[in-house]
Amino acid sequence: MKHLLLGASALALTLGTAGTAAAQSEGEFTLNILHINDLHSRIESINAFDSTCGTEDEEAGECFGGIARVKTAIDTRRDALTEAGENVIVLDAGDQYQGSLFYTTYKGDEVVEFMNMIGFDAMAVGNHEFDDGPEGLAVLLDGLDFPIISGNTDVTEDATLAGRLPGAVVLEVGGEKIGIVSVLAEDTAETSSPGAGVRFIQAEDYLMGAVQGLEAAGINKIIALTHMGVTRDIDIASAVPGIDVIVGGHSHTLFSNTEEAEYSYPFMVENPAGVEVPIVQAYAYSKYLGELSVTFDADGNVVSAEGDPLLLDASIEPDADAAARVTELKAPIEELMQQVVGTATDEIDGSRETCRIEECEMGNLVADAILDRVADQGVQLVIQNGGGLRASIDAGEITMGEVITVLPFQNTLATFELDGAGIREALENGVSDWENGAGRFPQVAGIRYTWERDAAVGERIVSVDVMQDGEWMPLEDDTVYKVATNNYMRNGGDGYAMFAGDDKNAYDFGPGLEIVLADYIAELGGEYTPYLDGRISEVE
């Protein structure tokens, strides 16, 4: 495929080819788009909870995705479409980085290897591509055989990236030129580590100019490959004329016509000219491959858009070569599991018998680690479900393997805003089923509460205080607080429905909790003494 690269601030072009020509009637042109997003280092297959699938589950046919299945699925569909004379491109909407020990170990080299092995045509920069600073993104710029693009990401003041990050690309497919423009969430400086030399332009402002430039160059088929999230994609479609299709990521949203989903595939949004724009996304973690077939008329107008994501379940045989390479790369990770991250001066109690009914030492450790990670973002308090803590840690050396045993779900750190009344409601939910040892029991940091176990459900929280400027202050129902939790709870898991929704200025895709915990122990000098401080108490 020929690639024509376009800078973020100017339409300086460079050219590439993809797909094959298919006969079209009446000047129509059909383009098939295979796409993934937010793979988040799920190099190995995943289970129903989006964490690494074990050997027994794999043998039982209960696993999904993994990069070897992604390769099989893309190769199979691309070959079938090409053999049928169809035009096809393969896109990634960003966030290959962060989410498993493959990224922790290889820092992007594994992404380069597998993406080149599969053969993508373009990738959007995701916010997590900045998790190791501009140098982390440079690994992809150095190694990928195809363009990685982000138009509203201004890198002119960064020595590592300046002049290296295109804003858009033009693909030549079946004799037609397809413009791909890309934008990244503007709050990436808060959710990742791009550095002082990188700034983010309002997406709509960049796209207006980029689309006009492409149209002026005679390109009338334009795809926005975005890492913004579904609500921002809808905003963009509504505000920017000239975009024909949006292929998105960032919000981990499943669009589907055959499975339960909030959005149809594609989801149509009317633009300022009254034209409907198809928007798609394919969940996350390598579980699905999106496939959208778009037909344009001779003037570049979309006349039809249809498709559905393909579930990458056990019916799809992992590519043998990719699977063998995954096994080879996993060997050093087994060694990493033995890596010592610190020392415990005493046993850190993380048993379900305590963490699901009262303040526990592991709950304090994990909640403190979360709060420490995001306190500089203005986060005031943490609520962590006791059921998310799966083990204790013995006195002595603490290995990475033990950390992962405590936090095995590959949950990510999530932040959001909620008023005091909602926080009180969350705590009521947390203590509502202590009788059954429910995992919803709230371990906390930056907040303390007193509860009465024998009171009626919904009336068990007696008092709540929040740490403010070094003092405990009563929780105010009308005050909005910034809260941190894990992405499972933020999405309503364990009954925390009050945490869910798109109206809370939320960010759900921070680093994995296991990384947060290991880093916190290391920052303490490597030695940790477990403690209880009365942050959770009961009426006597």
Provide key terms for this protein.
8-stranded mixed beta sheet; 5'-nucleotidase,  domain 2; globular; 15 helices; 28 strands; alpha/beta; 7-stranded mixed beta sheet; Purple Acid Phosphatase, chain A, domain 2; 540 residues
In words, what does this structure look like?
- It contains 15 helices and 28 strands.
- The strands form six sheets. Strands 1, 2, 8, 9, 11, 12, 13 and 14 form an eight-stranded mixed sheet that branches. Strands 3, 4, 5, 6, 15, 16 and 17 form a seven-stranded mixed sheet that branches.
- The chain is globular.
- The chain starts with a strand and ends with a strand.
- Residues 8-17 and 19-24 have low confidence and may be disordered.
Short description:
This protein has 540 residues and is an alpha/beta fold.
Helices and strands in order:
Elements: E1 2-6, E2 16-18, E3 29-36, H1 55-59, H2 67-83, E4 87-92, H3 101-106, H4 109-118, E5 122-124, H5 133-143, E6 148-149, E7 153-154, E8 168-173, E9 176-184, H6 188-191, E10 199-200, H7 203-216, E11 222-227, H8 230-239, E12 245-247, E13 267-270, E14 276-280, E15 288-296, E16 302-307, E17 310-311, H9 320-336, E18 340-344, H10 352-355, H11 361-374, E19 381-385, E20 396-399, H12 400-406, E21 413-419, H13 420-430, E22 442-445, E23 447-451, E24 461-468, E25 471-474, E26 480-486, H14 487-490, H15 513-523, E27 527-528, E28 536-538
Parallel strand pairs: 2-8, 3-4, 4-5, 5-6, 9-11, 11-12, 12-14, 18-27, 19-26, 23-28
Antiparallel strand pairs: 1-8, 3-15, 7-10, 8-9, 13-14, 15-16, 15-17, 18-20, 19-22, 21-26, 23-24, 24-25
Helix pairs in contact: 11-15
